[in-house]
Design brief:
This protein has 343 residues and is an alpha+beta fold. Helix content is 52%, strand content 10%. The protein folds into 2 domains: 198 residues, H-NOX domain (Alpha-Beta Complex), CATH 3.90.1520; 95 residues, Arc Repressor Mutant, subunit A (Orthogonal Bundle), CATH 1.10.10.
Length: 343
């Protein structure tokens, strides 16, 4: 199977738990919208959303906010929704994050269990020259309009950081894959950081030391209850593409002057080597293929920075020589790294 981000259009529609709609109706009405009409036009039943562990189509969820933006005339309605959306409102995934002992553990748990909350989505940590990025991208090609979702989602994720680091915390930078709106100043004001548009993914940049912060509401018992639900749901909806995305993101996190090993990645995922290899076989995957896919994806991320020397790109991808990286890059893109930067 392919290990890229794009699933087959014949794949089942991606789902999201209805906890993500918590407070949406009130938010729409606050901006002058008719919540029942917005939900109705999106094909979502409001009564279904009263159960936080029910699920709806991700395409309908994204479309609901695009409809709300048009109906209310507030182009930043998703942006504002995300800013006010607290981790507890996200249901099981939010509780998995804030009941963890540290921010590092909370983000790891959110990454591991994200497929149980939302399907066909890449969510994970990337390291880049001492700075960490929390990236988020829906990769279902059947959902073309997702600006509102991207803006509200990064706001939600920033609130996980604030749960550990305080309300005054701000990211180093925010990136969005969609084009810049007419007035992007409000984005920088609300995030408290520079915001870039038209990038390859949606991402939050933050300092590595932020990960050491303790979660003030850590609760081992609550986490055990939430974990049991998320693991059960993950087993029910197991998807090779989602599992590959989780492992690929962990590999990207570990890549550097040397290659991560199966033992290191399995330990991060809380699995024995044997269990990890079994899951790979079950999903028709191999560790070397995932490593190649991770290097490919991360290489494109690094190549966006024209000031980053190619030798440094190669080193950050675990290549000991530039020539080895150049050969691999040519196999991925059909052109040399030097030419790729010129086009």
């Amino acid at each position: 199977m392919a290990l890229g981000n794009e699933p087959s259009v014949s794949a089942p529609p991606a789902k999201v738990l209805t906890a993500a709609t918590n407070g949406a109706a009130r938010h729409f009405e606050r901006f002058g919208g008719a919540a029942d009409r917005i939900f109705g036009h999106a094909g979502i039943r409001e009564d279904v959303c009263e159960n936080p562990v029910a699920e709806i189509n991700l395409s309908q969820y994204c479309n609901m906010f695009e409809i709300a933006a048009k109906q209310t005339g507030h182009d930043n309605i998703g942006l504002h929704f995300g800013q006010s959306f607290k981790p507890r409102q996200l249901g099981m995934l939010g509780y998995a994050a804030i009941s963890s002992p540290t921010l590092a553990a909370g983000l790891r748990n959110a990454e591991q269990y994200f497929p149980a909350h939302q399907g066909q989505t890449a969510f994970g940590l990337i390291q880049d020259d001492g700075i960490l990025w929390l990236s988020y991208r829906i990769f279902d090609p059947r959902i073309p309009d997702r600006r509102q979702d991207a803006e509200l989602s990064l706001g939600m994720f920033c609130n996980i950081f604030k749960a550990a680091l305080g309300e005054d915390w701000a990211p180093l930078e925010i990136r969005f894959e969609h084009a810049a709106p007419e007035s992007p100043e409000e984005h920088e004001r609300l995030f408290g950081a520079p915001v870039q548009f038209g990038r390859r993914t949606n991402a939050i940049a933050f300092r590595r030391k932020d990960l050491d912060a303790r979660m003030p509401d850590q609760d081992p018992y609550l986490f055990s209850v939430v974990k049991a639900f998320l693991e059960s749901r993950a087993d029910d909806i197991a998807n090779p593409a989602d599992f590959a995305a989780i492992v690929r993101n962990e590999v990207k996190m570990q890549l550097g002057s040397r290659m991560p090993t199966v033992t290191e990645i399995s330990a991060v995922l809380g699995l024995t080597d044997k269990s990890f290899q079994k899951q790979l076989r079950t999903h028709g995957l191999t560790f070397p293929d995932i490593v190649r896919a991770a290097r490919h994806e991360l290489a494109l991320h690094y190549m966006e920075d024209p000031d980053m020397p190619l030798t440094e790109v190669a080193l950050n991808l675990g290549y000991s020589e530039l020539s080895a990286f150049s050969r691999a890059f040519r196999s991925w893109t059909g052109m040399s790294p030097q030419r790729y930067r010129r086009v």
